[in-house]
Design a protein that fits this description.
Largest sheet: none
Number of domains: 2
Number of helices: 11
Helix content: 55-70%
Number of strands: 0
Structural class: mainly alpha
Length: 327
């Protein structure tokens, strides 16, 4: 089953790349670089759609379409399509060799279903004009794909459970809660990004010069609405964007404190010092990148790194849970 494991690893690496590239596309405002799906103005590449892009540029020079943005958007689709083919191969191979696949073919087929749903979300992201709920769901779907692929790869790589140790078993609930908190924070981060609320507060640790700025949570966290609008179609107020940003900051503090405590517990657990250093280092990196995004006014490279760091931190918690639950 070496080929199966290698296929899983290739898909896992590609998924991380697709998640990071998706963040780059979103943060460089290229999400509507090709306003149709799955092609670009009905063509296979932006090169073949050059005339249509030129016509759009002539009509709206400052619009969401340009040649560079079209290539960014289509590159993301090409990589995502390749990932879909890899996951299809994993599902078929897992079904054909189910007697030798650790855990059976259930999760690989769940992965395939998730990839199909991700493709639909990618289409709706364009057709629904970057509606925040769809964009955030698309981000979470990418993170879920990464997590499931990692879990399946780890399960296949380590077929035999480790010796039982009651001290490690006591960490199960703590590790599960840590994973849940990170997922919640990623969802909040996606909501910040999809609503363009990252610079609602441009200072740190204060927000707009105070600890508790004016905020309006109801319009900010209304899920079914258009980008930049309230549920009634009015312009989304600054107080709503501030509420979104502030909630992400508060959750970041909760996650940092909890994972810091979890790292200390892991350091005292036999055989988990290395895992503690990985989680602690990624946590410190994420906190630093988040603060840098605010103080440096959201430079593209730092913002993309913050998204990639979130994926790595999530992966480290999935790895930790996989290791603990195999005991």
């Amino acid at each position: 089953m070496t080929f199966y494991r290698n296929l899983l690893l290739a898909a896992l690496i590609l998924t991380f790349g697709v998640v990071s590239l998706g963040a780059y596309v979103r943060l460089s405002d290229a999400g509507l670089g090709c306003p149709d799906w799955p092609g670009c103005y009905g063509k296979l590449t932006p090169h073949h759609a050059a005339d249509a892009i030129d016509a759009e540029l002539a009509e709206r020079p400052d619009g969401p379409v340009s040649h560079a943005k079209a290539w960014k958007e289509m590159a993301h689709r090409y990589f995502a399509g390749t990932l879909g083919l890899l996951v299809l191969g994993i599902a078929v191979l897992g079904w054909r060799q189910q007697r030798t696949v650790a855990g059976g073919p259930g999760l690989p087929w769940l992965l395939l279903g998730l990839i199909v749903f991700q493709a639909l979300l990618g289409m709706w992201t364009v057709t629904q004009l970057l509606k925040p709920l769809v964009v955030t769901a698309h981000l979470l779907g990418g993170m879920a794909t990464l997590s499931l692929l990692l879990w399946v790869w780890l399960r296949e790589r380590s077929r035999f459970s480790h010796a039982y140790d009651a001290r490690i078993d006591s960490l199960r609930a703590a590790a599960t809660l840590g994973l849940a908190l990170v997922v919640t924070q990623i969802a909040l981060g996606g909501w910040v990004s999809s609503n363009y609320a990252a610079l609602a507060c441009t200072d740190f640790p204060l927000c707009q010069g105070v600890w508790m700025p004016a905020m309006d949570f109801e319009p900010g966290f209304t899920l079914h609405r258009e980008l930049g609008e309230t549920a009634t179609g009015d312009l989304l107020p600054m107080t709503a964007l501030t509420a979104i940003h502030w909630a992400h900051r508060v959750m970041a503090l909760i996650v940092a404190l909890y994972l810091g405590w979890l790292v200390l517990r892991l350091l005292r657990a036999p055989g988990y010092a290395g895992m503690a250093l990985v989680v602690g280092s990624l946590l410190a990196l994420q906190v630093s990148l988040g603060i840098s995004n605010v103080l440096l006014s959201l430079p593209l490279a730092v913002a993309v790194a913050h998204n990639a760091g979130a994926a790595l931190l999530l992966a480290s918690l999935v790895w930790l849970n996989s290791r603990i639950y195999r005991r």
